[in-house]
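REQUEST ID: PR-0412
SUBMITTED BY: lab tech R.K.
PRIORITY: routine
TASK: structure prediction, single protein chain
INPUT:
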Amino acid sequence: MRKRFIFLLPAILLVVSACSQGMPEKTERAEKTENTEKTENNEKNHNLVFVKGGDFVNTKSNFYGKSVTISSFYIDKYEVTQKEWVEVMGSNPSGFKGDDLPVEMVSWYDVVEYCNKRSVKEGLKPYYEIDKNKKDPSNKSDYDNLKWTVTINEGANGYRLPTEAEWEYAAGGGQASKSYTYSGSNNVEEVAWYWKNAGDKPLSGEWNWTMIEGNKNKTKAVGIQKPNELGLYDMSGNVREWCWNWYEEGDLDSDSGALRVVKGGGWIGDIRNNEISYRGKFEASGFGPDQGFRVSRAE
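STATUS: complete
OUTPUT:
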């Protein structure tokens, strides 16, 4: 019996050794599988970029140092284009026409409908429940004659608007942030289309609508300027982007209001509007030639 144990001991040690050596390889395989799944998921989701969650790193953010932690999520690399809009909605409301230009002239209500219809088209569960017949008691606007009640389907995997905090976290570079003032740079000219550079020639001086109009300013094709730390384009400038949240002065998490948050500034806007911290606001039923959006999804 003792002899058999002596003979078995080397074999046992060999198995233990093999298992020990295989553990890092197994861990590495698991990591590769996870990364492959994320890559495949990204390919299925067109231009969605994975944003790893965490606390705010960008010191210029309104949420920096406020104990706000963002869960991981996906967000579109680009603003939704007119081609993408037409493929889902069937018509193009934009004032400046072009497949690769961002869609504009869309209200907050228009874009939540787009999110749901695109989700259905791609076999995903719609993120929003939209009741057009029930007036939203949280909507305090005197001018919004729609006031649809829009609620969230918890656990749905469909497309949605980013929250203001998610938008600012992604625009600010997430965990890779270098604390830029604009999304991807401290030099606005590198990353943003705004009133001074979005026309036939560069403009100077103070913001002036007559100059903007005469210079034939307009939206630009998505993805031309420099991306930010996460590879996201046009989060400063081009078109202002709708977010989910209500806007209230001094309140970053209001559950009611008269206006919805818009972020990033647009081709009409002044340089200040392009800062990631700038809090724009707009009537949910409003729309304009500098008003667009990008989609996001849960991890």
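NOTES: Residues 48-298 form a domain with the paralog of FGE (formylglycine-generating enzyme) fold (CATH 3.90.1580.10).
REVIEWED BY: pending
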